[in-house]
Amino acid sequence: MRRDPALRFAAAALLSLGLHALLVMGGWLRPPAMKAESTLLLEARLAPAAPLDPPPAARPAPTRREISPPRSPRRTQQPVSPPRVVASPAPSAYEVPSPSAEEPSGTTAQDAPLAQSATAPPSTPSEPAAAPAVSEAPVLAALPRKGRIRYIAYLGSDRFTVGKTVQTWELKGNDYKLGSVSETTGIVEFFRAQRHIYLSEGKLTARGLRPERFFMSRTRRGRTEAAQALFDWQAGQLTLGKVPERHREALVADAQDIVSFMYQLALAPPAPGRTRLAITNGSRFETYEIDVLEEEKIETPLGVMRTLPIRQIPRPGAESIAFWLAVDHLHLPVKIRFFDREGRPVGEQIVEEIELSDG
């Protein structure tokens, strides 16, 4: 199809006008020229660094040995390596609560959701303590000056966590102090809060621990009951009983309280077999007959441990206890199990942390 000559002429005219406009205005479209004096020059120079102050000399840390859980759960089945030496604060002392005269004696299973403390005694009365045969002074192991053991407390065979226990000790010269505090945690703390405190003080002799004073308190539902035992070794008498009631009994050789006796066995681990120990819980003075079993490996949050199992021989109608001493860790108690009057396991405490310090 042929285009109109008029349209072709108009298009050519418009194109010509556009080209002339670009030629005339081209100077306006060019960027302005940069002046020489406004140009910025960047120059990099290397200067010598200022001398650094010498680092301060490192101070030697006080010795402390700590056994911590392995970082990977898969390593819990490997033997725990020897404790490493690091700094640690000293274990804190526990405040002894004031006893309440209104608190009735005895504890029911419903009032005690917390697994009994690592030093809890049988709740039924027993025969008076008989004098065990006095043996030669044992060869004692050495304990660090300070230590702390933390346990997780379980209730029942389902291992339901109900609380925690912390045991501490401190040695100053020939004096010793031992403490055990158990308390409920979590939901159990909200509904049935409890706190058990056991304190033992005395001398470290050639035969081991020799208690002089023992105190226990049990707080539940806001009330506290307490008992105390005083060892008069010179007079051969033991004054004991619930506060404020007291009575006296004849004190036998090598008698212990329910805190000190496990550490006495740690200082002088017994050979496998059966033995007897005279022990007071502050209210009663009785003889524990115990079996020392062959070595056994147990699993703990710190790994697999070689242990020396010790089991109290249960008496009819009485509760009993068993515990495991760690062979590679100063024979410290790392697991404690409690049995009811029918011999069924009702609670357990197992180690989750050990701290040792010679500072």
Question: Main traits of this protein?
Answer:
18 strands; 18-stranded mixed beta sheet; globular; 11% helix; mainly beta
Mean pLDDT, to the nearest integer, reads 74
Number of helices: 3
How far apart are the first and last residues' alpha carbons, in Å?
111 Å
Instruction: Kindly report the oligomeric state of this protein.
Output: single chain
Major sheet characteristics:
18 strands, mixed
Alpha-beta classification: mainly beta
Total number of strands: 18
N-to-C SSE string, H for helix and E for strand: HEEEEEHEEEEEEHEEEEEEE
Helical proportion?
A: 10-25%
Task: Report the sheet-strand fraction.
Answer: 35-45%
Ranges where pLDDT stays below 50 over 5 or more residues in a row are: 17-52, 72-126
* Cα-atom radius of gyration: 39 Å
Shape: globular
Word description of this protein:
The chain is mainly beta. The protein has a domain at 120-357. It contains 3 helices and 18 strands. The protein has an 18-stranded mixed sheet that branches. The longest helix is centred in the first third of the chain and has 25 residues, at 5-29.
Layout of secondary structure:
Layout (H helix, E strand, L loop, with lengths): L4 H25 L34 E4 L16 E2 L60 E10 L4 E13 L2 E10 L1 H6 L2 E12 L2 E13 L2 E10 L4 E6 L4 E4 L5 E2 L2 H8 L5 E8 L4 E8 L3 E5 L2 E10 L7 E7 L5 E8 L5 E13 L2
Gist of the model:
By secondary structure, this protein is mainly beta.
